[in-house]
């Protein structure tokens, strides 16, 4: 199993290393990691990234994409002020722009020599994230995702593994074994699999308040997958204990969001809400090793949200310590 950490090519993340990839290389070696999973922005120059350190590429995610894909003009008019706003969000007015965007990202992932790519299977509207009332079922989101994915990734292509990641909104959650198997069978691209985000899976159960409860729940869900479990190739390791936040009403936040004076203020409220749910803190409990043993992944990605490179090093140390039992078994 290779251990990676997630790093985006946004200025905020690269500033942790003074935008210096030699520093990033040194950090990887010093912290005894095997490389990075990169959140690759569309216009970042690939030539700046040193060869051999990128194992995975996280593809972009449009949280509210299904109405655009279906060209539901009524809903699009409710979501966006005008056509310019639609262009700004998706890159154009026709669904083909999503296909072209992912084809471009696919080419860039291959150019970097990535071993895998990550694709979110989900759809959510901003207000629905507060109310938990959704317009679409898991099946509808997964069915539309198959349409998009099969239009982007040709069946005969032999590129990096295409790994599908779960969220706690409508789409891939792993809670329905039959649906999970149906989806992976429907992907025409041959080099495919699943990625389990530990926090995202935990967030499908609002009663979880400690690590033991998280482990028992994850064990139950993964065991119920049966043979489908073999498709799990990677894990995003971090921790969420949703009971204390998800157990309260978020209608006051929804009111703040709806009354916000502009889009920027709305975005701040939404980000604060999402970060409270999915804080990307390290899973610093020894049960982290037991969670990984359930799935036996090829890659374990430390996906955390540090404010400095020193905090990132600390987060890596925390999860390395939690996985020490697994390391000793492999020695």
From TrEMBL:
Domain Xylose isomerase-like TIM barrel: 99-248
Pfam family, one: AP_endonuc_2
Entry keyword set: Isomerase
Gene Ontology molecular function: isomerase activity
Protein name (record): Xylose isomerase domain-containing protein TIM barrel
Organism: Cellulosilyticum lentocellum (strain ATCC 49066 / DSM 5427 / NCIMB 11756 / RHM5) (Clostridium lentocellum)
Upper classification of the organism: Bacteria, Bacillati, Bacillota, Clostridia, Lachnospirales
